[in-house]
Specification:
The protein is of the alpha+beta class and 478 residues long. It has helices at 21-35, 51-82, 98-105, 142-155, 260-265, 271-305, 312-333, 344-371, 378-389, 396-405, 407-429, 439-443; strands at residues 2-9, 12-19, 91-94, 111-118, 132-137, 159-161, 173-182, 185-198, 220-226, 240-253, 431-436. It is built from twelve helices and eleven strands. The strands form three sheets. Strands 6, 7, 8, 9 and 10 form a five-stranded antiparallel β-sheet that branches. A four-stranded antiparallel β-sheet has the order 1-2-4-3. The chain has a two-stranded parallel ribbon with strand order 5-11. Helix 1 crosses helix 2 (51-82) and helix 9 packs across helix 10.
């Protein structure tokens, strides 16, 4: 095998690799020798088929296998000999000349191919002890707990059907059937049966609930509304619509007394136990928000400290993944870049920077984890898999088998766990100062109009409400 370096520019490498025809012939003969004990050819006893005869019968097809195996082995050997770390699987380019290919398969020409790749940059992690981050912490006060319990009580109000002939009022829960029409034609997602709507909740598009006030059970009516100009489905935005509505039941809300009996109805021993559970959950929410903001600061600091060159192909691949999701989101919502107060060119530049940041931080965190022997345990991975499976009730077995059979999918579960462990490692060495703040300050994000993409999951999707009778905010790519 002869290896000639043809490109060495920054992180880019290109090698010309040549394997003599004689070496290929030797590999071919060895392969045919292995085959002679297994093939069955009429006129020959098992194991007695001459290699020369096998070469005449199977030589071309076996040589194709030999060439593939040789490329795999020699390309790996070339990288090992050079002691380089490719940033991705190298691109292999064999000749496309049919005559040349035929000569190689016949053993009449050397095997020559090009291998191109980019190497990982030399990474130098900053001094973690000099990184300073501020951790905002908020206290869970009694007023917040009482407020949360009041919301729980509101959500668990009992409803009882109103007496026959009674008219609907604000706060009542109506059970309705409806069919939405534009210009007399039903539109997709504009119909439902046995839908429940609480008058005054604002859960449906403006004007819808108001026109259902003062009606009796059994009433059939037509609700006329105009979809908001910024409605997520562009083909409905600003359109006038009519909904044929049948009021099937009117139920009035009952009173809820927040006491031990209420707590027991929720499966807890007492009101005090309910308060403890609510306090614990709120504390977890506060801690998660605090962690999120600390992690953002940390990754900002790491990103600012890293100035190394990035493998261009990794950035390209990351950008394409982001861009595909962004354009799909826009298409699904029927919006354009102009609706988002930008242009495609500006959006591309913005998301290119995000892709660069992801690659830069991804490489650094991976390097830190490797050098410090940070591992994701089987227990941690199984826990993540169980959590994932639970997101698909009724399909648990199918989802479980999918992850068991797809290493790439399992790797996607492992990645965020690994990242969090590396972040924990760095935070343990950094200077973390706690800062007492209010709940409002803790959850305030001055950059909430922008996408930082500090985590390396590739999810930009939005959960949109496809029932067009219901109110839904416009789509905006993250």
């Amino acid at each position: 095998m002869q290896v000639t370096e043809t490109v060495n520019e920054g992180l880019k490498r290109e090698l010309q690799i040549t394997v003599p025809a004689g070496d290929l012939d030797t590999r071919l003969n060895n392969r045919l020798t292995d085959l002679k004990d297994t093939v069955r050819i009429r006129g020959f006893r098992p194991g007695k088929v001459p290699v020369a005869h096998l070469k005449r019968v199977y030589g071309r097809s076996v040589m194709a296998e030999v060439v593939e195996q040789t490329v795999n082995e020699t390309s790996q050997q070339a990288i090992t000999d050079r002691e380089e770390r490719p940033a991705y699987q190298p691109d292999i380019a064999l000749t496309e000349d049919k005559d040349e290919i035929e000569k190689i398969l016949k053993g009449e020409a050397d095997l020559a191919y090009k291998m191109s790749f980019e190497i990982l940059p030399a990474l130098a992690a900053p001094d973690f002890g000099k990184i300073e981050v501020e951790k905002e912490v908020a206290t869970v006060d009694e007023a917040v707990i009482d407020e949360s319990i009041s919301r729980i009580a509101e959500q668990n109000k009992p409803y009882a059907p109103r007496e026959e002939g009674a008219k609907s009022e604000s706060g009542d829960r109506l059970t309705i059937d409806y069919v939405g029409k534009i210009d007399g034609e039903p539109f997709e997602g504009g119909a439902d049966q046995d839908a429940q709507i609480q008058l005054g909740s604002g859960s449906f598009i403006p004007g819808f609930e108001e026109q259902l006030t003062g009606l009796t059970a059994g009433t059939e009516t037509v609700v006329k509304v105009t979809f908001p100009e910024q409605y997520q489905a562009a083909h409905l935005a600003g359109k006038e619509a009519e909904f044929d509505v049948t009021v099937k039941e009117i139920a009035a809300p009952g009173e809820v007394t927040i006491d031990d009996e209420f707590a027991k109805s929720l499966g807890l021993e007492s009101l005090e136990k309910l308060k403890e559970a609510v306090r614990e959950q709120i504390a977890k929410d506060y801690e998660q928000q605090s962690r999120t903001k600390v992690k953002r600061q940390l990754l900002d600091a790491l990103d600012e400290a890293c100035t190394y060159e990035l493998p261009e192909k990794l950035v390209d691949n990351e950008f394409e993944a982001i861009w595909q999701q962004v354009t799909q989101d826009l298409e699904r919502s029927g919006r354009s870049f102009e609706d988002e107060k930008t242009t495609e060119e500006e959006a591309r530049a913005e998301y290119r920077k995000i892709a660069e940041r992801r690659v830069r931080l991804g490489l650094l965190l991976a390097d830190i984890g490797e050098k410090n022997e940070i591992k994701v345990t089987d227990e941690e991975l199984n826990r993540a898999l169980v959590d994932r499976v639970r997101q698909f009730p009724g399909q648990e077995q199918v989802v479980w088998e999918y992850y068991q059979k797809n290493p790439q999918a399992t790797a996607e579960l492992r990645a965020p766990i690994f990242e969090e462990k590396v972040v924990d490692y760095i935070l343990a060495l950094a200077k973390v100062t706690e800062k007492p703040v209010s709940r409002e300050e803790l959850f305030h994000d001055p950059d909430d109009e922008h996408d930082h993409d500090h985590d390396h999951d590739h999810s930009h999707g939005h959960d949109h409400d496809h029932d067009h009778g219901k109110k839904s905010s416009g789509a905006k790519p993250d």
